[in-house]
Design goal:
Helix content is about 40%, strand content about 20%. By secondary structure, it is an alpha/beta fold. The strands form four sheets. It has an eight-stranded parallel beta sheet with strand order 3-4-2-1-5-6-7-12, with helices on both faces. A two-stranded parallel sheet has the order 8-11. A two-stranded parallel sheet has the order 9-14. The protein is globular.
């Protein structure tokens, strides 16, 4: 298959590329503005060549080409409409991962969040539509639903709690419209809280706590620690993305991609602290701050639809995933 992956130098994208390269037989094109992920992050997953927009390989146009690597990188922004059309031309699947991630940046700058998560998505839906793309997995979030009595399910009415959730909701709406109107097989994947090796740039709980402990800083908790999240290991997520790209007959569907387990931040720390201390972070301390605007109190998801239709379920236990993640950070920092 020929894959276009936006945000492919990031945490999720680079891990997805590593799996595709390991499986073999794929051509991968990456569009990334390198604002978060780096060339080194991509190099850790695959050899690649960097090309500019005017020198894209003939692969996208359906021309047989012998490339020195299975992966090419375009340093570009998802807000560039012309690039989106050119990059998507001839691809089999567009995995749209790029965009603003997280509630706090959306609260600080709602307009920028909208530009990235709504207009950036629309650009690649248009690129996919005009480029003959068959499948369009889109990285969304449970933030679309907002504050509700969990677990979050696909059929719940959306009531976003933050600009981030509102932007993802709008992008989901466009995905639905492009399937219904143009026949582009969009598949919305609502990721839960993803963690794991390669997450050094993430500001989510697991990565942030590990970075703070390694640097000798207090581990900062917002609120009393009773807020809950659904922590999903990166390799489980990658498997879900690949299945969403390949499973037949799922155009227009929405899936919660999660473990289905509700974990408080306090419980997360109870599991994480012994792992950190066993690896030399003996003086890790906890510091509490007030709840942040836009954060929901409880958040976990029912992933039974993904099991029923995609045959997917999370396999990694939280303690094993945390141990693997700590080891990666210690080796990289």
């Amino acid at each position: 298959m020929k894959w276009l992956i936006t945000g492919g130098c990031g945490f999720i994208g680079s891990r997805l590329i590593k799996k595709l390269v390991f499986d073999g037989g794929h051509f991968i094109r990456v569009v990334d503005n390198l604002s978060v992920g780096t060339r080194d992050d991509l190099a850790g997953s695959s050899d690649f060549i960097e090309v500019d927009q005017g020198a894209l390989s003939g692969i996208g146009a359906g021309i047989d080409a012998q490339l020195p690597t299975p992966c090419e990188l375009i340093n570009g922004d998802i807000l560039d409409k012309d690039l989106a059309k050119e990059a998507a031309r001839g691809m089999d699947v567009v995995v749209h991962l790029a965009g603003n991630t997280g509630v706090a940046p959306s609260v600080a700058d709602p307009f920028q969040d909208c530009r990235a998560n709504v207009f950036g998505t629309l650009n690649y839906l248009e690129g996919a539509r005009h480029g003959g793309v068959k499948r369009f997995p889109f990285a969304s979030s449970g933030g679309v639903v907002g504050e509700c009595e969990p677990p979050i399910r696909e059929e719940l009415a959306p009531h976003p709690f933050s600009p981030y959730g509102a932007g993802k909701m709008a992008a989901e709406g466009y995905c639905s419209a492009y399937f219904k109107t143009f026949g582009l097989e969009t598949v919305v994947l609502r990721f839960s809280n993803v963690y794991g090796p390669g997450s050094r740039h993430k500001d989510s709980a697991v990565a942030k706590f590990i970075r703070q402990a390694i640097s000798g800083e207090p581990l900062k908790i917002y609120g009393d620690g009773s807020q809950t999240r659904d922590f999903l290991y990166i390799d489980d997520l990658v498997e879900a993305v690949i299945r969403a790209a390949m499973a037949p007959g799922i155009g227009g569907e929405v899936f919660q991609i999660a473990t289905g387990t509700e974990t408080t931040i306090s419980d997360l720390l109870e599991r994480l602290m012994p792992i950190l201390r066993a690896r030399g972070c003996e003086h890790a301390m906890i510091n509490r701050a007030s709840m942040r605007s836009g954060d929901v109190k409880r958040n976990f998801s029912d992933a039974s639809k993904a099991l029923r239709i995609l045959g997917w379920q999370a396999e990694w236990r939280l303690s094993d995933g945390l141990r693997s993640t700590v080891e990666w950070f210690l080796n990289k920092c």
